[in-house]
Specification:
Blueprint (H helix, E strand, L loop, with lengths): L1 H15 L5 H4 L1 H8 L3 H8 L2 H4 L2 H14 L3 H14 L1 H9 L1 H8 L15 H18 L2 H22 L7 H13 L3 H14 L3 H14 L3 H11 L10 E9 L4 E11 L2 E11 L8 E5 L4 E4 L1 E5 H38 L1 H14 L13 E9 L2 E9 L4 E9 L4 E9 L2 E7 L2 E2 L10 E3 L4
């Protein structure tokens, strides 16, 4: 009997030592990221010992690097996340059935398995790669990642026989890239897919009107004008500024558990649920100070909503696995009780209570939403300011744009703080004192 109690105590200590959730273990890293201390956040997130997951280490560190404008580092870390999820991605690209078989596997508890990301998280790794490639002007790589993101999303939708309000971010990045290199017909296809999916339609609809008119597609132009209104007047040989932004912080997971006492022992069930974070900033406003022209960002897709929907689609599988494990562990409790009497019953119940835990791992540096806007301006000199609605306002600087040129602004809000990076354009004066906006030399 003493050996039983010693084993029970050791098991409780072993399992209890891992009771800190992923959110708790990585709280310092997230605090550093939220506060703009990107070097410290990168150091913590890039260590798999800190995160306990190769996938999350790559995804979190990649997001920090992307927010800091460190494009090569972002590629390195996101690439690590892709490598960690290689097996499950390969199954997803084969088909929904192969993906389902992988998700149905189970162990002592869900947290005991190597974390390879939720389906929507794996999609966002590839859009993160696409953005880093776009910032570096590696156009062909942008298309590869955007297409992979779309294929992985379609596999998730087929598996759960549903349609998420997602996929718009990858299509928008692809569409903007096609327009940058002068292929409006290909951009048109991506905007059409956004409209078909019902994501980012405020942006996609205006783009479809503009491109249908530009390419002389009269029948489609009439349909789109009826739905989205007439094309906007633009300066002759207009240049443009495109803002691609992540707003706020996405959700985190908590555990919901239920212990059911039975004559044969406890049955323990544990499932995760997402908690939405309050958001300080609703969106962004781009201002051209010379003319006073302004444009607001539009929501392309809401990450928090997608995360919740994706989890709801999987919750039946998660609960079924948890119940099945509970039944098996209850049989263990019965065996221990038969051998060790009440002491065995206590040992079995303790094992069940400590071992059945929900998997609370999640990509915590994702934004709450992805938003974008486009401003058409006369070619020449312009002074730009970016404002977070509910947060700070930053002078981006004074730039000269050639006729037809497109300048990109990548931005991320964290709390009320704004972290923008300008790509393209010709800067004519130093950025305002105190502004963290960075001017990248390369133009896609």
């Amino acid at each position: 009997m003493r050996s039983l109690f010693a084993a029970t105590r050791s098991l409780a200590l072993l399992l209890g030592s891992g009771c800190a959730s992923y959110t708790e273990r990585t709280a310092d890293a997230l605090h550093d990221f939220h506060g703009g201390h990107f070097d410290d956040a990168l150091a913590l997130y890039s260590d798999p010992e800190e995160t306990g997951s190769e996938f999350l280490s790559g995804a979190e560190a990649g997001t920090v690097a992307l927010t800091a404008g460190r494009w090569e580092q972002a590629l390195l870390h996101f690439g690590g996340a892709v490598a960690a999820a290689h097996d499950i991605e390969a199954r997803a690209l084969i088909g929904a059935e192969a993906l389902g078989e992988s998700l149905a596997s189970w162990a002592l508890n869900d947290s005991a398995r190597a974390y390879q990301g939720e389906g929507f998280e794996r999609v966002y790794v590839h859009t993160g790669l696409a953005m880093a490639y776009l910032a570096l002007g590696r156009i062909d790589d942008v298309y590869v990642e955007a297409r992979l993101a779309n294929r992985l999303l379609e596999s998730e939708e087929k598996l759960y026989d549903t349609k998420y309000e997602a996929g718009g971010w990858g299509h928008l990045i692809s569409a903007v890239t096609y327009e940058l290199i002068g292929e409006p017909d290909q951009a048109y296809i991506d905007y059409q897919r956004m409209e078909e999916k019902g994501v980012g339609t405020a942006i996609a609809g205006r783009a479809l009107v503009r491109l249908a008119r530009q390419m002389g597609r009269a029948d489609e132009l009439a349909r789109f004008e009826e739905k989205y209104g007439p094309d906007l007047e633009r300066p002759e040989l207009a240049a443009s500024v495109v803002v691609l932004a992540g707003i706020g912080l996405g959700p985190y997971k908590i555990e919901t558990g239920l212990s059911l006492p039975t004559p044969d022992g406890l049955i323990q069930m544990a499932v995760p649920g997402y908690v939405e974070r309050p958001q300080s900033v609703a969106g962004l406003r781009l201002v051209e100070e010379g003319s006073g022209a302004t444009v607001l960002t539009e929501v392309v897709e809401r990450v928090t909503r997608i995360a919740k929907e994706n989890l709801e689609d999987r919750i039946g599988w998660i609960a079924a696995k948890s119940i099945a494990r509970g039944l098996l562990k209850r049989e263990l409790t019965k065996t221990l009780e038969e051998k060790y009497d009440w002491g065995g019953r206590v040992a079995g119940d303790l094992f069940l209570l400590f071992s059945e835990r929900a998997d609370l791992r999640a990509w915590l540096t994702l934004p709450d939403s992805y938003q974008a806007c486009r401003m058409f301006v006369p070619p020449g000199v312009l002074r730009l300011r970016l404002e977070a609605l509910g947060g700070e306002s930053l002078e981006l600087g004074v730039f000269e744009l050639d006729p037809g040129e497109t300048m990109l602004v990548f931005a991320r809000t964290l709390g009320t703080r704004l972290h923008p990076h300008v790509i393209g354009g010709k800067p004519l004066e130093a950025l305002s004192v105190g502004s963290p906006a960075a001017q990248d030399s390369g133009t896609p």
